[in-house]
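Section: Multi-chain targets

For targets with more than one molecule, the full set of components is provided together so that the structure can be written out for the assembly as a whole rather than chain by chain. Components appear in the order listed by the source. The example entry contains two components.
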Amino acid sequence: MTASPAVPEPASAPAAPVRGSRGRHAGPAVAQPTGADLRAAAAGRARRILSVLRAHPLATTGGLIIVAVIVFCFGGPAVYHTDQFHVFLSQANLSPRAGHPFGTDNDGNDELGRLMKGGQVSLEVGAAAGVLAALLGSLWGATAGYLGGVIDAVMMRIVDAGIAIPAIVLLLVLVSLYRLSTAMLVLVIAATSWLSTARLVRGEALVLRSREYVQAARVMGGGGLRAIVRHIAPNAMGTIVVNVTFQIANAILLLAALSWLGLGVPYPSVDWGDMLNAATQLIDNGYWWQILAPSVAIVVVVVALTMLGDGLRDGLAHDE
Amino acid sequence: MTAYLARRVLQAVAVVVLVTLIVFGLLSLAPGNALSAVLGSGGAHQQFLLAYLTWLGRVLRGNLGFSSRLNVSVSTLLVASLPRTLVLTGVSTLIALLIAVPIGLVQAVRRSTATDHVLRGVTYLGYAMPTFVLGALLLLFLAVDLHWFAAEGPQAPGIIGFATDLRALTLPVLTLTLMTVAIFARYMRSSALDSLGQEYVEAARARGAGQRRVLLAHVLRNSLVPVVTLLGLSLPQIVGGAVLVEGLFNIQGMGWQIWQAALRQDAPVTLGFTLVIGVAAAIGSLLADVGYALLDPRVRYAQQ
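Its structure, encoded as tokens over all components, is:
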């Protein structure tokens, strides 16, 4: 490392011609060493996350529980066959017994089988929306933090305004305007929950943009987008990975809340929130098993994701 | 301090303007002529900016338009429902603070002991359990099975009757309180851990201050300061929780109104209420920051 060069002029002069040529000439010369370094760094980071998992029982337990739930929901129906499409009124609202270990619901559908089927929707929508929200928020935050100044101020005020409106309220507004398909629900849930990630990553980007390697990339003529995608985002990856786990948990809770309010995934899809909706309507009858099964499922998944995220964060913090 | 205040107020104004833009943008995108339900048939055909300013002018005069499904104005619904939500969230937040502060402090002092782990597990659970699951379980066991409480929130028409019907109000308040405790306690724990590591704690110990004095006079006081910010920042979360609690316990507050409006696709109502909640949260966050600066001189000086 040459520590000698005084902090160079901000890259305005050299950046202009290079940006004009879209980096075709300067690109490879800058990219090759950087790219190799990045790949090595990425591999190192993946190893580090694995070793953190091993060293932190909290994170490992959380991860194992999530794997178990995924196997239960997606592999379970192959072993435990149930009919979730027809109505069996003679079998309605049975308490847990042989043949129906978790009882049945108001339509006579087996609760254990429904738990698997509903779990598929909860996990799929939750994972998709959570990852999307984290991606969106990371890009927004990294851009704001890297650019700084007026653009940063405007971008972060937009985040402030979004955070002022509770996510569930904004979701209710959106579903009051349109009846949404499952894919649209993913988009809408992500659109209401990327804000916290944006704040988090912006803080990280503010620190990173003053580091030498980012400065160096700018001096050598790398454009803003390049700095954000190749330098800021990968180095904020620890923060982002941890945040993904929280975002997925959050998305699962939001979807469950929407479904519970009767505004979730369109019929005949069900998720755990829909099961709770059906159960809550019969709550005065005391059918406890209908409430307990989806409740426990939601809580277990969210606790496991939180444990995984907290453990990873602690581990990554100790490493640095 | 004045410069900091001025800048912070300016920021809050920008946020409020953006909230109004978001709400108005959604309103003009809404199908079924929601905009003309609010602006009247002439207003809806203006250009965006002009329509926005017309709308903003009316909102500032307290006119949020009419429901597109019911024969009432949005303000009428708001006036009827706001006090119930205020009572529900206010009482719950207050009790939650009284519970969460000691819990967080105990966790920080007994860090990494069995007490910490157990309390951490409980707050995890409170955080992970959706408000309506927690409420449904409480309802199932305490109201349906044991008949200790009413299975529904207070239905009295007046706010005094609402606030004094303890048999009916206890479960909703308890549900929202437990949810809020989970948010606050996690925060209080890390805040107290921060304070415990500060030099003034060591200095106080070196002067011979006992554990009780160190905790009450130094750690507690200093870790309460960030709680002011927390209060301001969790306002949206608490209101979000209130939506679900009101839905579960059939309390005709703001959240219940938004939910019912969403079910009948009544955009003027959902958006009018959203506007009020967003502006209130922006103001809450401003007040929290100002309070923080008043309590902690380091914030004032750092900003200069």
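The mean pLDDT of chain B is 81.
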